[in-house]
Amino acid sequence: MPTERQQRLLNLLQQADAPVPGQALAEALGVTRQVIVHDIALLRAAGEPIYATPKGYWLTRSSSGRETVLAVSHTPEQTKDELYTLVDHGVRVMDVRVEHAIYGEIVGNLLITSRRDVDVFLEKVRSERAALLSSLTGGFHYHRVQYDREDQLAEACEALQKAGIQVMSDGAPEPRTR
């Protein structure tokens, strides 16, 4: 049973239309950022589907859209093209995953839905001098994606392949070929 503060935190996340930075949640609840991190951990342990993204915390909602996993492989320089192509076709990039030989599956929550999100993500990678997860696996990685119509995903996969980005989908329509 969540505490009163945790219930207020959950309510803030339920009302949000976009991820909410931890500092904004802390200020709204009159606590420190560390208290928010602790409360989020407890809420997750209780089964709440809260994700930490580069843009803040996000409470997932059931979606009428479809979801699948794309396996992709490309160079770091093609990351911008990959993400732009997906969002330009209405595909939402929920996360990135790699299979690591020692650690198993490593997941980074992204929640990228627009070119602006791509630009913010890549600027953060650049400014933090962070390595992309795909650098651990020679460019091979997975994205959990959401989309509303089958043609959006098929057209995005076709455009990725035309751009020289290898892509395979799990349970999604095969990209159309000419």
SSE succession: HHHEEEHEEHEHE
Total number of distinct structural domains: 2
Report strand order across the widest sheet.
5-4-6-3-7
CATH architecture of the largest domain: 2-Layer Sandwich
Kindly provide the name of the CATH class of the largest domain.
Alpha Beta
Q: Would you mind describing this structure in some detail?
A:
The protein is α+β, with helices and mostly antiparallel strands and 178 residues long. It has two domains: 4-59, Winged helix-like DNA-binding domain superfamily/Winged helix DNA-binding domain (Arc Repressor Mutant, subunit A, Orthogonal Bundle), CATH 1.10.10; 66-170, Histidine-containing Protein, Chain: A (2-Layer Sandwich), CATH 3.30.1340. Helices cover 39% and strands 26% of the residues. It is globular, with a radius of gyration of 17 Å.
